[in-house]
Amino acid sequence: MLPLYYLLRTNVQSSKMKVNLFLYGSLARFGGGRYVAQMSVDLGPDSGKMELLNQLGIPREERGYLFINSVLCEVPGMETGSNELLKDGDHVGIFSIDRLWPYQYRDGIRMSEGLKAALGERGAMHHSYK
Amino acid sequence: MARKILRINMSTLKAAYEDVPEKWARWAGRGLTSAITCDEVDPLCHPLGPNNKLVIAPGWVTGTPAAPSSGRTSFGGKSPLTGGIKESNAGGLSGQMIAKLGLGAIIIEGTPAKGKWYTLVVSKDGVKFEDAADLLGKGMYEVDEVLWKKYPKTAVIGIGQAGEMKLSNAGISVNDPENKPGRYAGRGGMGAVMGARGVKAMVIIDTGGPGVDIVDKELFKQGRRKLTESIQEHGLTKKAGGLNAFGTAVLVNILNEAGGLPTRNFSAGQFEGAAKISGEAMAELCEKRGGEGMMGHGCHPGCIIKCSNIIPDENGNAVASCVEYETTWALGANCGIDELDYIAKMTRECNDIGLDTIEAGNTVAIAMEGGLLKFGDAEGALATFDEIRKGTPLGRILGQGVEATAKAFGVSRVPVVKHQSMPAYEPRAVKGIGVTYATTPMGADHTAGYTIAPEIAGVSGKLDPLSNEGKAELSLTFQAATAFIDSTGYCLFIAFPILDIAKGWEGMAESVAGVTGQNITGADVVPIGKEVLKMERLFNERAGFTAEDDRPPEFMLNEALPPHNVKWTITNEQLDSVFAWVHDGHAA
């Protein structure tokens, strides 16, 4: 029989998670890089995009495109109001707000439900929302 | 002084100036190369035979004082790669100098005696035909150096060994302000067309030229000011903006995060080594190594965007300029290679031998899939370029590009449309661009459909990014706007500010109207662009192209692309609707 403390430790570990984070442009400084930084981030259970951003301390006005597992969740300057949940092993990429993505190169890419809803209210995607 | 046409006959070794005929008078740049090609080149001719021509034309505003980022030169004719009409344009020194000589276009036709090669020295006094025997077999770094010793501070247009061998992936080089090759009219094998005319190089000397007439100086200045301001205000094109700070490769990480970066011969949409070959990584490399390395390099005088770069080796010595987004993708992610130093070395090889980096990288990827070498084998990939330089049997296959190489190695995943390979945006993930790849008269080409912000294009009401509806109309609008910009002589990257900032759009049109005296406003841009597209589509039809040539490669319909596991979903009916208007009121 396994000791009780071992079971408790296992449970605690399984509820924690690590996400693989890439920070691009000036945001790389939050991960110790110059223009690109890659880091593993520990998050508590039931964390989402907002908990990650709060933990990193990235100011809202510096955030641009944000991807979770290749799905676009945030665009520069627009708050979607949704908090996509994260799970262990997820990949998150965050760009600084000055990164522009010309329309023809993004037309048809996959977006989160939260971003779709926000764009439904705000109209076609712009380079930035002010 | 009105613009002239300079017609150079390589059979007789004579050159003559002609007035620009009325039918061509309103055109410049791509519009003019396509108009001349349509009128003078038999669409059924062999691209390397005696009946093809090489047409060279600066844009409407090229050579005018302080028109921002306007140094493009268009090279046109029938493409050996696609078998259709081709316009491929480059930066560098040539456009402004040709324009300042008062030339609307240079037409090179005929074929010299077998084995004879020439350097054409074009100046206000006419054309000198210099024997180019001493340049044969030389790469473009040496050609530029040799010709500048004799003709310093001139524009040098030339072909490397690939053009001499008339390979379908041969591009035309234009020297940059440091007299290095790297500004390429790369796509479509136009270097082979130049080689077929027996021209190894051209030297353009603008000293004493009449300059460019400006019909309405005030209107020109007004347009120039609006355009300049919009470039300086836009986040992508302003000083220290995305392009200036990180080059076009600023898009690598974005497309990779989105799952739209073609990887290992279009078998996936994400590359684990993308960050290492991105614009951000290039900027870090240049800062760390210093020396001659730099971001924010300008490819021609008067560019205010300066998106080029010079990638240094570990000692700070320049290796190559410029490693573009397409270049670092084609020679990097698409080959599974994540080492910038090797990508820079391969870029230098392409610049020297005279190869389009997109087609070259795609070709290496095909060779990797076919088993010639393994994905990720940077040393092996670099060695393939020496095969091309030497003209070995393998090198001649690789130099023919993707389709020929795929046949030689039994590969069926062949990412081409109209025989030209795709650039760095996976159309299964970035669905909008797939329509342009499939339908542009140029073959798969990302520059064929630069965008208008949907609001400006007037198609926003139909625009649902998750739906295929409206994409045909959008693609046509983009293709038409691009055809217009390609005719202005402005760099296509002005598209970003002018399509986001209304005064930039107006300014571009006003500057063209000011130079030419034509009554052109922003509202005329798309209709004029459509006229160019119509010429090109009709040429292709006469060359034998049908609706079946406006199709994606088969594997994209069958293979789901990771990470999103998406297939091509645009219908053939939608593709056919893009150019259905071409025959409105026109006998088929």
Summarize the structure.
The complex is a heterodimer of chains A (130) and B (588). Chain A is of the alpha+beta class and 130 residues long. Chain A contains 3 helices and 5 strands; from the N terminus they run H-E-E-H-E-E-E-H.
Describe the structure.
- The complex is a heterodimer of chains A (130) and B (588).
- Chain A has 130 residues and is an alpha+beta fold.
- Chain A contains three helices and five strands.
- Chain A has one domain (16-122): Roll (Ubiquitin-like (UB roll)).
- In chain A, strand 3 and strand 4 form a beta hairpin.
- The termini of chain A are far apart.
- The relative contact order of chain A is 0.19.
- Chain B is of the alpha+beta class.
- In chain B, the strands form four sheets. In chain B, strands 2-1-6-3-4-5 form a six-stranded mixed sheet. Chain B has a six-stranded mixed sheet with strand order 8-7-12-9-10-11.
- In chain B, strand 10 (172-174) and strand 11 form a beta hairpin.
- In chain B, helix 11 (340-353) runs parallel beside helix 13, helix 12 packs parallel to helix 15 (402-409) and helix 18 (471-488) packs across helix 21.
- The longest helix of chain B is centred in the last third of the chain and has 18 residues, at 471-488.
- The two termini of chain B are 40 Å apart.
- In chain B, 64% of the residues are buried.
- Classes of the chains: A alpha+beta (130), B alpha+beta (588).
- Chain A binds chain B through residues 22, 24-25, 28, 34-36, 38, 65, 67, 69-70, 72, 93, 95, 98-111, 116, 119, 123-128, and chain B through 235-236, 241-242, 246, 250-251, 253-255, 257-260, 269-270, 275, 278, 280-281, 283-284, 287, 425, 429-434, 436, 446, 449-455, 460, 463, 465-466, 471, 474, 478, 495-496, 499-500, 563-564.
